[in-house]
Amino acid sequence: MWFFARDPVRDFPFELSPEPPEGSPPGPWVLHRGRKKATGSPVSIFVYDVKPGAEEQTQVAKAAFKRLKTLRHPNILAYIDGLETDKCLHVVTEAVTPLGVYLKARAEAGGLKELELSWGLHQIVKALSFLVNDCSLIHNNVCMAAVFVDRAGEWKLGGLDYMYSAQGNGGGPPRKGIPELEQYDPPELADGSGRAVREKWSADMWRLGCLIWEVFNGPLPRAAALRNPGKIPKSLVPHYCELVGANPKVRPNPARFLQNCRAPGGFMNNRFVETNLFLEEIQIKEPAEKQKFFQELSKSLDSFPEDFCRHKVLPQLLTAFEFGSAGAVVLTPLFKVGKFLNAEEYQQKIIPVVVKMFSSTDRAMRIRLLQQMEQFIQYLDEPTVNTQIFPHVVHGFLDTNPAIREQTVKSMLLLAPKLNETNLNVELMKHFARLQAKDEQGPIRCNTTVCLGKIGSYLSASTRHRVLTSAFSRATKDPFAPSRVAGVLGFAATHNLYSMNDCAHKILPVLCGLTVDPEKSVRDQAFKAIRSFLSKLESVSEDPTQLAEVEKDVHAASSPGMGGAAASWAGWAVTGVSSLTSKLIRAHPTAALAETNVPQRPAPEGLPAPAPTPVPATPTTSGPWETQEESKDTEEDSSAADRWDDEDWGSLEEAESVLAQRDDWSTGNQASRAGQASNPGHRSQESDWSSWEAEGSWEQDWQEPSPPAPPPEGTRLASEYNWGGPEPSDKGDPFAALSVHREAGAQSRRDSWGDDNWEGLETESRQAKAELARKKREERRREMEAKRAEKKAAKGPMKLGTRKLD
């Protein structure tokens, strides 16, 4: 039986890259790129080939292998794995690049900033301090060839081939035998007399001075060049001169050198070094310190290197969110760092965190996500949006905080293109109907109208026909003037989605009523929109063949390309009203937004003008539109309302019943119900918009107005009158018979948004109900007393201890 020896190199879990070695340092080792066979993760592999007759170099390589394997420090090259055979030595470390190669590549790309160089030198000095002060080891090889840089831009100290103990055990320093390395030896070693009294760190600190000179000025030609600092920063020159002084006794300890450079005004006293030092100790920091750090981090990220942000800051941010209590403060720096990632990295690292954040009950995190949605929406796919994002976002429509409701409305501009049929045409429209009808904040109602106009092109044809006209018509009767402007602009932005019949019979009558609006801004926009719709009607009237071309989008399927017009028409509304909303919310967090007077239609001749609605005499707030504050009887407990987990969202219909009990501005729904009670045969368009919560059927919410009631009995047809000449005086006014009917039906025909004072009706209704309930309770009490008296008379008094069987 034959046995074949296994090749240890072939079985090694790492393999060398076919690419040629990159900038191998002078010495016995050759640096190769490599990767782990199982995962493909990149590594660096140092290879030493054993040669006959080079036993001294082989012993040096084996000693370096052992040192690197046993020394563990964040600033020393990290050992991963190794292989030792009779023919070669393989040392696997983290993926690194020699410092000389790294500086050359960065110089071609614009050069390194002083911030990066200060932190890199800080790391090397810290590694020397660890070796000298904690391990009593002399590195004996500090130079450009012994420093490596990882993918995050962190400098690592390597080249441990010639290291020896500072305590003298194990012999003296090994012989190098390489001229390129011996030029960094201090002058006292070349003297050989031993007269110079020096500290154990003196030689390594001299070599550190040589390294600093090479970092700023390039390769060191000779030792005499150290006398000229060259391009070394002025703040570092005094400390550099201490390192390369002729007297080894005065060369500072590495720890004291760091302390001197970190002093105020020192070379290493900057925000970048402070950030790195905090990240290294973030696990032991207090939660308050972490919060402050992440809040200030965003301001500094723009000046930090890209590689540092991607490979050092980002993992710490993800860890702080996953396992810490950082909360919403990590969002701003997280999305800022996310700009440096490609699409694949963003999907792997950022998106899972974002999806998890949307399910959080932290209000601050929710509003930050909504405000910064534009930065990550492009990386979200449609299934994720519909199943994991949208169900959590819609809770914001019912939130008691106006800022969250406003940001939720704005976020729909970005989410709408990715929503499916049900979420967009059913669920979202339900919430928009409630917001436009009942939200007490005028700017939020305005933004709801603006958002509907912007996303109108994404709605299905049936939903557009059922929703848009009714929604914008309702907005034109809003007490808040900017909402009326938004309604007009909504009509104009979606003008291509209406048939010519709708333009003539539904839209133009609404717009014409706004030409006498109290606000000039509303009148101006109304006239512009009227001219636009009239020009379309006139062009079709002149050339009926254009009808198909003009109405091509009316029954077309939803198309993202159709949203461009809406964005340009109403782009101003979100910005302007958003700033107003935020100002009002900040200035009056618990007060309801004031409403301007409702636009009144001019009363026909012969009819008394309706009494104006009384307006509370409260001071007006400053802003582009005159608004007044409504005084509230009670104030909400904001601390209790701010907890999402304490709220029972339930179904949308249940939320409607709760919201209906609140005393808010939206009395339009009550007025419409009162109008229906007085005239059941007529149902206004506005009541259709808000009736979904009462009837529970979405299909009935946007139905068209009922046909007009038949004329009263005895009314003559128009053709029966003598229109050509004056009527005889004995016949009287032919319309006099109708005046009584008009006066009787004026109240029922008046819009639910009108100036009628429904407060009296509500008060009378409540008083009647209270009186009826009181009478019922009294009757019930008398009946119960009578029954008890009958039983007592029939059975007599009960004995103590007996059981009542009936």
Can you put this structure into words, describing what you see?
The chain is of the alpha+beta class and 806 residues long. Helices cover 50% and strands 6% of the residues. The chain contains 33 helices and twelve strands. It has a five-stranded antiparallel beta sheet. Strands 6-8-9 form a three-stranded antiparallel beta sheet. A two-stranded antiparallel sheet has the order 7-10. A hairpin with a 5-residue loop joins strand 2 and strand 3. The protein is elongated and about 115 Å long.
Quick structural gist:
With 806 residues, the protein is of the alpha+beta class. It is 50% helix and 6% strand.
Considering the chains and any ligands shown, give keywords for the structure.
806 residues; alpha+beta; five-stranded antiparallel β-sheet; three-stranded antiparallel β-sheet; 12 strands; elongated
